[in-house]
Amino acid sequence: MPQAAPLVSDFTILGNYGELHDDGGFIANINKVEAKVTVAKLDVNRSGTRVTGYKRGAITGEGTMTGFKVTSRWVELGINEMSDETNPPTPISLVVRLDDPEALGTEEITIGFVKFWEFPFGYNVGDLIMEELPFTFESIELTTPLTGDFTTP
């Protein structure tokens, strides 16, 4: 039986090459992005069996972006939310990009209808000020997939 080719470690993606873009371009101060799509699992209890079946339910998109405070952009969004309850801000799109030069290419994921729900501010003496911004999204598209043979150097 032939042996499988070994996984080439250099193709593993390093987060240092991650980027976050919005409608205005590259957001340089963001150093962590986490997002996930969650499908609700509904239990289906049927007669004649003790085995529970499952059905897909509602789908949600949630995430958090974290970065260094360099402007008042996010505080301004929060102030706008509180001061004008009848005219909420327009949702934005975010593009999460991974572009490690040793990887099998570039991956881009576009998430749309992004809405922010918390707008932090404050400080701690001696610390760099970080902002953690939770968000939700309502659409997702893999605009550029990673492809290639990861077993061949």
Q: Can you tell me about this structure?
A:
By secondary structure, the chain is mainly β. The relative contact order is 0.25. The chain has one helix and eight strands. Strands 1, 2, 3, 4, 5, 6, 7 and 8 form an eight-stranded antiparallel β-sheet that branches. The model has no long low-confidence stretch (mean pLDDT 89). It is flat and about 60 Å long. The protein has one helix at residues 73-83, and strands spanning 18-22, 25-26, 30-44, 53-68, 92-98, 107-116, 130-137, 139-144. A hairpin with an 8-residue loop joins strand 3 (30-44) and strand 4 (53-68). The protein has a domain at 15-35 and 65-144.
Topology:
Elements lengths: L17 E5 L2 E2 L3 E15 L8 E16 L4 H11 L8 E7 L8 E10 L13 E8 L1 E6 L9
Antiparallel strand pairs: 1-2, 1-5, 3-4, 4-7, 5-6, 6-7, 6-8
Taken as a percent bin, the fraction of beta residues is: over 45%
What number is the mean pLDDT? 89
Tally of DSSP β-strands: 8
Which term fits the overall shape? Answer: flat
| Distance from first to last alpha carbon | 22 Å
Helicity, as a percent range: under 10%
Total number of helices: 1
Low-confidence stretches: none
Order of helices and strands: EEEEHEEEE
Taking the sheet with the most strands, its summary is:
8 strands, antiparallel
